[in-house]
Amino acid sequence: MGFKCLKCGKIIKEEELGKRTRCPYCGGKLLFKERPKIAKKIKAI
Ligand SMILES: [Zn+2]
């Protein structure tokens, strides 16, 4: 699981981020927590 920077759009891993909450690429503060891509199958009946 990681974070997505809303400024540059890069995916930052939690390890990469460390204790900082800034994007290491652009220094942006807006990080969006990425959810693991688990496709929830919704049964549309
Ligand atoms: Zn960024």
Walk me through the structure.
The N and C termini lie far apart (32 Å). This protein has one helix and three strands, in the order E-E-H-E. 9% of the residues lie in helices and 22% in strands. The protein is mainly β and 45 residues long. Strand 1 and strand 2 form a beta hairpin. The protein has a three-stranded antiparallel β-sheet with strand order 2-1-3. The chain has one domain. It has one helix spanning 14-17; strands at 2-5, 11-13, 31-33. The longest helix is centred in the middle third of the chain and has 4 residues, at 14-17. Residues 5, 7-8, 10, 23, 25-26, 28 line the site of zinc ion. Zinc ion binds at residues 5, 7-8, 10, 23, 25-26, 28.
In short:
This protein is mainly beta and 45 residues long.
